[in-house]
Design a protein that fits this description.
With about 260 residues, this protein is mainly beta. It has 2 domains: about 140 residues, Sandwich (Jelly Rolls); about 120 residues, Jelly Rolls, CATH 2.60.120.10. The protein is about 5% helix and about 45% strand. An 8-stranded antiparallel β-sheet has the order 1-2-17-14-19-13-12-11, with no helix packed on it. Strands 3, 4, 5, 6, 7, 8, 9 and 10 form an 8-stranded antiparallel β-sheet that branches. The longest helix is centred in the N-terminal third of the chain and has 5 residues. The protein is globular. The structure holds (2S)-amino(carbamoylamino)ethanoic acid and manganese (II) ion. The site of (2S)-amino(carbamoylamino)ethanoic acid (UGY) has 7 residues, from strand 19.
């Protein structure tokens, strides 16, 4: 049988061929093994260019998808009322963001508020990205945030609750107009979250580097770069970095709205 090209390099392809997977879809959390990715589903992109990981269909209040654009290909998706956080994982691209345009390289990101059309075109190296989208929660008297463009390398990481081995970068300002946060967590080998969190905010997460163990509800999962995780509101969660190299993940969180405000 022929193995599709994009699966060939995957370590877990043998497992997949035997009908095994690390993917777990539970009621209050999910772990997505990249070997199970199926492409398609985001209008505005070529059908082979996206993988939807998390969506309201699983019970989430947001969408998390991956983008894989070949050199010269382009795509974008701005449904009415939806805001977007776009993070370029590798390659290079040019982004058209309403009236503006920006050159993106690895670690570049943008936040596009509702009402701004965005589109990216991959340069000759192709482009791989992770995207978080949600319907913006408008509040009376609050103007939605502006368009924002930045780079991972320009953001300073701060020790998480005093632990210099667990550095947290926050990509979006802590301003009342924002109803989403996207952060990057960098753990030295052996570092961990200081306690098992359980909170009203939900998360969508993509492992970017290294490996570790993630506690979700009452289960513990080995995780590695490329894995994605959904954590429903209140899902007990804890992470520890394992192995000889640092572990790093990017994650989404809903913020800034009263639980009764809709
Ligand atoms: O921001 C957070 O809630 C973060 N500490 N959670 C997590 O990394 N699972
Ligand atoms: Mn958390």
């Amino acid at each position: 049988m022929t193995v599709p090209g994009h699966l060939k390099e995957k370590f877990s392809v043998r497992q997949s061929l035997l009908g095994l997977t690390r993917t777990v879809i539970a009621e209050r959390h999910a772990l997505f093994d990249p070997a199970g990715h199926v492409r398609g589903g985001i209008p505005g992109f070529p059908s082979h260019a996206t993988v939807i990981l998390i969506s309201p269909r699983i019970g989430a209040g947001f969408v998390q998808f991956l983008v894989h654009l070949e050199p010269g290909e382009s795509g974008g998706s701005s449904p009415p009322g939806v805001e977007t956080f776009f993070y370029l994982l590798s390659g290079e691209a040019v982004a058209e963001l309403g009236e503006r345009s920006a050159e993106l390289s690895e670690g570049s990101f943008f936040f596009s508020p509702p009402g701004i059309e965005w589109k990216i075109r991959a340069r000759s190296s192709g482009a791989h990205a992770v995207v978080f989208q949600k319907s913006y929660a408008f509040l009376p008297g609050l103007v939605p945030p502006p368009l924002l463009i930045g780079r991972n390398e320009d953001i300073i990481g701060h020790p998480f609750l005093g632990d210099s081995h667990a550095l947290l970068k926050t990509f979006l300002p802590e301003d009342a107009s924002f109803d989403m946060a996207v952060n990057l967590f960098h753990f030295q080998p052996g570092a961990s979250l200081p306690f098992v969190e359980s909170h009203v905010m939900e998360h969508g997460l993509l492992m970017l580097e290294g490996r570790g163990i993630y506690r979700l509800d009452e289960r513990w999962y080995p995780v590695v770069a490329g894995d994605a995780i959904w954590m429903a509101p209140y899902c007990p969660q804890w992470f520890a970095a394992l192995g000889p190299t640092p572990a790093c993940y990017i994650y989404y969180k809903d913020v800034g709205r009263h639980p009764l405000s809709g």
